[in-house]
């Protein structure tokens, strides 16, 4: 049986800070809380935790509301987008 993993897409300041546009991350457990993904990414990429804490998240093109992150778990195979706040004019 293979280790469950997710494809993580990084945008804007998350992409710049991490230096990648995407990567595949193995999940330590399945199901794995979406709220714990910040720590998993921060442990792999030094200096990115503050950026990640300001980001919005989507799972398989579903934007997760900030107050619902704790209700989401990842099983493996999902595409997770890390979307930093943006401003426009």
UniProtKB/TrEMBL annotation:
Under the heading SUPFAM superfamilies, the entry gives: MoaD/ThiS
Q: How is it modified after translation?
A: C-terminal thiocarboxylation occurs in 2 steps, it is first acyl-adenylated (-COAMP) via the hesA/moeB/thiF part of UBA4, then thiocarboxylated (-COSH) via the rhodanese domain of UBA4.
**BP-aspect Gene Ontology terms:** Mo-molybdopterin cofactor biosynthetic process
Q: Which residues carry this modification: Glycyl adenylate?
A: 89
| Modification sites for 1-thioglycine | 89
GO MF terms listed in the record are: molybdopterin synthase activity; nucleotide binding
Highest taxon, organism lineage: Eukaryota
**GO cellular component terms?**
molybdopterin adenylyltransferase complex; molybdopterin synthase complex
Family annotation (Gene3D superfamilies): 3.10.20.30
- Tell me the InterPro entries matching this sequence: Beta-grasp_dom_sf, MOCS2A, MOCS2A_euk, Mopterin_synth/thiamin_S_b, ThiS/MoaD-like
Record CDD domains: Ubl_MoaD
Q: What does this protein's UniProt record list under function?
A: Acts as a sulfur carrier required for molybdopterin biosynthesis. Component of the molybdopterin synthase complex that catalyzes the conversion of precursor Z into molybdopterin by mediating the incorporation of 2 sulfur atoms into precursor Z to generate a dithiolene group. In the complex, serves as sulfur donor by being thiocarboxylated (-COSH) at its C-terminus by UBA4. After interaction with MOCS2B, the sulfur is then transferred to precursor Z to form molybdopterin.
**Could you give the subunit structure recorded for this chain?**
Heterotetramer; composed of 2 small (MOCS2A) and 2 large (MOCS2B) subunits.
UniProt similarity note: Belongs to the MoaD family. MOCS2A subfamily.
Q: Which HAMAP family would you find in this protein's record?
A: MOCS2A
Could you identify this protein by its name? Molybdopterin synthase sulfur carrier subunit
């Amino acid at each position: 049986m293979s280790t469950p993993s997710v494809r993580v897409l990084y945008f804007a300041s998350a992409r710049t800070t991490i230096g990648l546009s995407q990567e595949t991350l193995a999940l330590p457990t399945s199901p794995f809380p979406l709220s714990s993904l910040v720590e998993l990414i921060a442990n792999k990429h030094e200096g990115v935790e503050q950026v990640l804490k300001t980001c919005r998240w989507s799972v398989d093109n579903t934007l997760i509301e900030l107050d619902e992150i704790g209700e989401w778990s990842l099983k493996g195979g999902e595409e997770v987008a890390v979307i930093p706040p943006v401003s426009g004019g």
